[in-house]
Model the fold of this input.
Amino acid sequence: QLLLQESGPGLVKPSETLSLICTVSGGSISSSIYYWGWIRQPPGKGLEWIGSIYNSGSTYYNPSLKSQVTIAVDTSKNQFSLKLISVTAADTAVYYCATLIAQQLVELWGQGTLVTVSS
Amino acid sequence: NFMLTQPHSVSASPGKTVTISCTGSSGSIASNYVQWYQQRPGSAPTTVIYEDNQRPSGVPYRFSGSIDSSSNSASLTISGLKTEDEADYYCQSYDSSTVVFGGGTKLTVL
Done:
């Protein structure tokens, strides 16, 4: 059974870089079935797709976040990562890693991790 | 940019039927599949409907999805409401390589 687990700092200072890791267990991140993605949810608000990556290295980003975001895969560690640069308080959210089928629907979610942007 | 619009909230009594709408801003909502996710407080979302009207294993038959091309909208219908159905519901679709979520609907079971 595929499982996803987010990890990373829970507090990031404004203007710095938010970095998160998603560790995949129970399956290979090199699988051709899945796209690997990040989705966030500010406190009390809705879901926002951040971006996705396929094992070929192809990346897809939310146009509103594209200038800030990098998603990468580390096959040696069976992990994928999120980097969000120049963060502000508006980037405070629960960040979920997820698997997507055909880059169109979310099949599996991690449990989520809260990242607060504050000095 | 393609957007999905949902009502902010709906409510109904136990045993009744409720429908949550999800309207596409442009194009044809039928061009790409629509999914519906349920999110209870403090938990990650889970899928209740995928590919417009398919139920994942373990989701009760009380949950159903449909598409209405004439109104460019998708709907999630929950029949025989139970108190455990009280949650936030999000529709989601896809357009031009981007994943799009609706703003979410809070379902209250009175």
In short: Chain A has a mean pLDDT of 95. Chain A touches chain B at residues 37, 39, 46-49, 52, 60, 62-63, 96, 100, 103-107, 109-112 (CB under 8 Å). Chain A has no helices and eleven strands.
